[in-house]
Amino acid sequence: MKKTRFFYHYRKCDKKMSVHFKNQCFPVENIVCYAACESKWKNKQPFLVMQGFATQVEIVDNVAHIK
């Protein structure tokens, strides 16, 4: 399967995490990440995002499983 860029960050306004994968945004309560990821700092909000490459993102019971 082809790996695609993903990233996730905390959304203060929703008080939830936000996972971005294949041009979609998934607001979730928790994240379980099985893929390698790295931090990326920015000068504007969100200041810190975690990014990497994954083959799939599954949402189960409001928890994102990144593989």
Strand and helix layout:
Blueprint: E1 4-11, E2 16-21, E3 24-28, E4 30-33, E5 37-41, E6 48-54, E7 57-60, E8 63-66
Parallel strand pairs: 4-8
Antiparallel strand pairs: 1-2, 1-6, 2-3, 5-6, 7-8
Identify the quaternary structure here: single chain
User: Roughly what fraction of the amino acids lie in strands?
Assistant: over 45%
Structural class: mainly beta
SSE order = EEEEEEEE
Report the mean per-residue pLDDT as an integer. 96
Can you characterise this structure?
The chain is an all-beta fold and 67 residues long. The chain contains no helices and eight strands. A hairpin with a 2-residue loop joins strand 2 and strand 3 (24-28). The N and C termini lie close together (11 Å).
Short overview:
With 67 residues, the chain is an all-beta fold.
Could you list some keywords that capture this structure?
mainly beta; 8 strands; 5-stranded antiparallel β-sheet; 67 residues; 0% helix; 3-stranded mixed β-sheet
